[in-house]
Write a structure and sequence with these properties.
By secondary structure, the chain is mostly helical. The chain has one domain. It has 5 helices and 2 strands, in the order E-H-H-H-H-H-E. It has a two-stranded antiparallel sheet. The C terminus is likely disordered.
Length: about 80
Amino acid sequence: MAYGSIIVKRVEIKEFLDTIKEYSREEIECTNHTFFRLSDQQKKIYTPEKLKEIILFETPILDPYFSRNPGKQKLRGIL
């Protein structure tokens, strides 16, 4: 269920990766909010299926704020 753009819970990277591994491709939903910051060109590359593949099989990129502040490296997202 999508909650919009409200951060429900901040989690450590390891906790996020451990949690997301429990989901199947079919259980991950891509809403309009998923793509609203992407350019038209990026939207052609990062389709819902490609994003699901990245989430399930790669380590997601940290938010730039947290990358510049190593002591605060947490993923911002909705779980």
